[in-house]
Amino acid sequence: MKPTRPANPRPAERRFHGHPVAPGIGIGPVHEAAEPDLFITAKKLGADDIPAELARLEEALERSRHQLHKLKHRLAALPENSQAEIAPLMDMYLHMLGSARLLRGVRARIQEGPLAAEAAVQDETEAQAAAIMAQPGTDKAGRLRRADEVRELGRRVVRNLTRQPFRSFAGLAPGSILAARALRPSDAALIQPDRFAGIVTAEGGADGHTAVMLRALGLPAVLGAEGVLAGTAPGTFAIIDGDSGEIILHPSPASLETARRKLAAQTRAKRSLARLARLPAVTRCGTAVALQANLELPFELPMIAESGAHGIGLLRSEFMFMNRETLPDEDLQTRIYSTIIEAMDGDPVTIRVLDWGSDKEVEALARYQPRELEPNPALGLRGIRLLLRHPALFETQLAAIIRASAAGPVRIMLPMVSLVSEVVEARVILLRVWRRLKRRKNLVLPPAPPPLGIMVETPAAALAAPVLARHADFFAIGTNDLTMYTLAADRASPAGTRLYDPLEPAVLRLIHLTANFAKAAGIQVSLCGELAARPQAAPLLLGLGIRQFSMHGNAIPRVKQVIRGATLAACEALAEAALQAESAEAVRRILAGDAD
Ligand code: PEP
Ligand code: MG
């Protein structure tokens, strides 16, 4: 008798390989998300439609910025090499979105066409991409990449304008493994990581922007798994292993069991990181460390609350001034600060007054500071230098901060200080504003003006710290700028990035000096540059004398974990070795524990 075959034989297990791009195990049904075409019906407008069209543009730009900021802030929780690669791309997109040139071009096309906003964006980004390609020079690959980036940004704005989906990720069943032929970095920006079990593509390499972006999402991902899409139908069950790059379609019960065990172990590790939010940041030898959050945009507030941060160590107030045609008045600023201070529920908030100039363009302030007059913006009028030139602007902000300080503990911080006279002058203005407010009726004010401190982000400020400490109530070391100005290397320029490294012993020495001087003067010192968010650097910074860190909220748990495992004696030995090292590379080896 012939053996009977089961009615629905289980398909045989099939294995594929790709580039392991983001670690972790994903188990679930595969669903492909094909990229929809982008349609632009290049319509002409009537003159009456122009204001509404400009408003649509502003809204789409705001949505685009919001998406990019969200993605950027996820980066802080990543290994530092991923951050180092992708953060400049995000910054560059954001810079382009705030760039007067691109926006002026688009607005002019809307007004002069008059053209629909999507057509104006497409034409302008295409024209700029063509201009990049027409530039002389041999670096064709570099020009192609930059032209692609401009087009990519244009597509983002157009999709936001026309509400055409980036891809229909939202329609995919929760828990699916998202499959695609290829993904762009901007697609990755729209993936909600908690909705998917993993990501697989048939094309793409391990080193591209998309790969780094997917790591940023924290979802298991395998890219460039050739042939994988041909093997799947919608709903095909699969396992992806983001550590080995293996994809198993129709897994056998044994393969499934192994994958489930690995997944459970990973989930336990993640939970223990989340539990850290409630534990104190204290070293194994009992030294308490304050971990605070940097805040760039108010929508990050809920994330800060979850992170276990004790206050805001750096509120970059630039957000209130950017992307708007007019300046925020005293009442509006007071309301915004008060909301943030109240949300922090008694934890201190350090508000940095407007750090404007250099690469931080503020459209509404362009008339005060025409860029053409500043041949080298990073070395010209910036931060406190500019504010002191425009006292009305400075006084409005100080008045708003003083008024808001009735809602909770606040500190005021000055950016880009390099001279004692800047702090002295700023304090005179602060006291003048304070006295003026005291004379106003019906204002609730605290008993004294908030403490006034400074960012130490120029070598001059670090070297003059003992004298500055006589005039400043606290220091916050800004390693982003301190690195740039110490090494004379612009992190935004591709040639400079190789030189730009906060682990260079010269920069570490300035951090050490500042921490020591602050201690001797009896004032608080924190570190709020990106270096504070690197878990690997935490023992070094402790050893250099830093006890207060401020960083993106989502970096806090990992930094805390490292601090809880550290002892001060070991950190100090590490710092001593790093200060004697000859290069950032040597410091990295010391931090990794493989110094000779
Ligand atoms: C810094 O320079 O380190 C800093 C925190 O300021 P920003 O990055 O806003 O310039
Ligand atoms: Mg700075």
Concise summary:
The protein has 596 residues and is α/β, with parallel strands linked by helices. It is built from 22 helices and 16 strands. Bound molecules: phosphoenolpyruvate and magnesium ion.
Structural description of this entry:
The protein has 596 residues and is an alpha/beta fold. It folds into three domains: 14-35 and 169-246, Glucose Oxidase, domain 1; 47-162, PtsI, HPr-binding domain (Enzyme I, Chain A, domain 2); 284-360 and 378-591, Alpha-Beta Barrel (TIM Barrel), CATH 3.20.20.60. The protein is built from 22 helices and 16 strands. An eight-stranded mixed β-sheet has the order 1-8-7-3-4-5-6-2. Strands 15-14-13-12-11-10-9-16 form an eight-stranded parallel β-sheet. α2 crosses α7, α3 crosses α4 and α10 packs parallel to α12 (391-404). The protein binds phosphoenolpyruvate and magnesium ion.
Write the layout of secondary structure elements.
Blueprint: E1 14-17, E2 19-22, E3 25-32, H1 50-74, H2 80-98, H3 100-112, H4 117-134, H5 140-162, E4 176-180, H6 185-188, E5 196-201, H7 209-217, E6 221-223, E7 237-241, E8 246-249, H8 253-275, E9 290-295, H9 301-307, E10 312-316, H10 330-343, E11 349-352, H11 384-389, H12 391-404, E12 410-414, H13 420-439, E13 452-456, H14 459-463, H15 465-468, E14 474-477, H16 479-487, H17 494-497, H18 505-521, E15 524-527, H19 538-543, E16 548-551, H20 556-564, H21 568-580, H22 584-592
Parallel strand pairs: 3-4, 4-5, 5-6, 9-10, 9-16, 10-11, 11-12, 12-13, 13-14, 14-15
Antiparallel strand pairs: 1-8, 2-6, 3-7, 7-8
Bound molecules: phosphoenolpyruvate and magnesium ion.
Residues 457, 478, 480-481 line the site of magnesium ion (MG).
